[in-house]
Amino acid sequence: MDRLQHIFELQARLDAEIEKNHRLPEYDLPTWVQKEALAIIAELAELLEEVNFKWWKNPHPLNRDALKEELADILHFFVSMCLKVGVSAEELYRAYLTKNEENFRRQRGLSSRGGYSRLEGKLNE
User: Fold this and answer.
1) Is CATH 3.30.590 correct for 1-87?
2) Where do the domains of the chain lie?
3) What is the DSSP secondary-structure string of the chain?
4) What is the mean pLDDT of residues 88-113?
5) Which residue has the higher pLDDT, 80 or 110?
6) Residue 121: per-residue pLDDT
7) Which of 57, 53, 56 is nearest to 70 (CA)?
8) What pLDDT is attached to residue 114?
9) Can you give the pLDDT at residue 122?
């Protein structure tokens, strides 16, 4: 089985169980997206805590397992958001491929979007 598809299926089952166990109200789509985005932001903050972003505190050793756990938490909420807005694993994969190709064009100065041309950068120097 495709791993991304498997992740989407596991998340759909988890979301269904959470909704059943917590008797969540019927939120509209924009509210769900806001809730999922806020959850991702909270998990990103926890990830930052793991990498000593507070320069004013004594650093602690990096805990790779804790980093993986925070990244998995972020993925949980991200995939849940995809499911709620109706984006399948296949659609996300194809969107990623398209965006990745564009990002390479941007880095090579070949994008039609402004701000990425190598010539533009030299003109600003």
Assistant:
1) no
2) 1-87, 89-125
3) --HHHHHHHHHHHHHHHHHHHHT-----HHHHHHHHHHHHHHHHHHHHHHTT--TTS------HHHHHHHHHHHHHHHHHHHHHHT--HHHHHHHHHHHHHHHHHHHTT--SSTT--HHHHHHT-
4) 94
5) 80
6) 55
7) 53
8) 81
9) 59
